Amino acid sequence: MGQLQVTDLQVEFGGLRAVDNLSFSVAEGEILCLLGPNGAGKSTTLDLICGKTQPTGGSIRLNGTEISQMLEFRRARLGIGRKFQVPSVYKDLTVAENLSVARSKRPGVWSALTRLALSDAREACAILDRVDLADRRDELAGNLSHGETQWLEIAMLIAQDSRLILMDEPTAGMTLQETEKTARIFRKLSASHSLIVVEHDMSFVRTVADRIIVMNRGAMLAEGSIAEIEANEAVKTAYLGH
Q1: CA distances (Å), 220 to each of 21, 35, 75, 211, 235, in order?
Q2: What domains are there in the chain, each with its CATH number?
Q3: What distances in angstroms separate CA 116 from CA 69, 110, 135, 181, 214, one per listed residue?
Q4: Whole-angstrom Cα distance, residue 4 to residue 128?
Q5: Given 3-state DSSP classes, what are the helix, strand and coil percentages for the chain, each rounded to the nearest 5?
Q6: What is the pTM of this model?
Q7: Which of 55, 119, 135, 180 is the 20 to 30 Å CA partner of 45?
Q8: pLDDT digit string (tens) for 114-167?
């Protein structure tokens, strides 16, 4: 059994079943990519896992603990981190200060900043090195490129002790070079984290995915490696096109 176990998950909005009896697992250190046409239920699945949306049926277990009815902040404390399409960082703080705020257990930005100890600084350097931002630690976050801002948000999730990171179209708007760098960062992250990634860039998916699930109309259409998915006739018809 994997780190995350989703069983018969479903949610309805006004009679429309956006996620329909979805079951899958994610192992520790695995990168799972969710593919499918717009409206397939991919982002809603991430919403259900992180607690932004409550399911109308099914089970979500993290390391054996049932979390499907837990509030969002409690799931975050258990190690689920969510990165949305639009980055959310403090643009008027430096990269290092953003990390300090992210890892603080106390509410309030300024209380977090006033307790940046030497050990915190060392840990911040180690985290920033993992996302290739160590040389930008004293730069204001508002001065970062789009790709760098995305990497900072990933670093903030690492600082929050997120072990399972959910990403919604992380490479959208990136340059080719930023996308390639993001792929390298993801592969490094998988040594210590599990990732579920909603992504449309197939070249990126080919580079990072350990396993792929293709969704259609809220349900699982296919599951397998990139080679198995690309050879699947049902996927070709519904998504990739002949």
Answers
A1: 8, 10, 24, 13, 11
A2: 1-79+163-242 (3.40.50.300), 89-162 (no CATH)
A3: 35, 11, 19, 29, 43
A4: 27
A5: 40, 25, 35
A6: 0.90
A7: 180
A8: 454 444 677 888 899 999 999 999 999 999 999 999 999 999 999 888 999 999
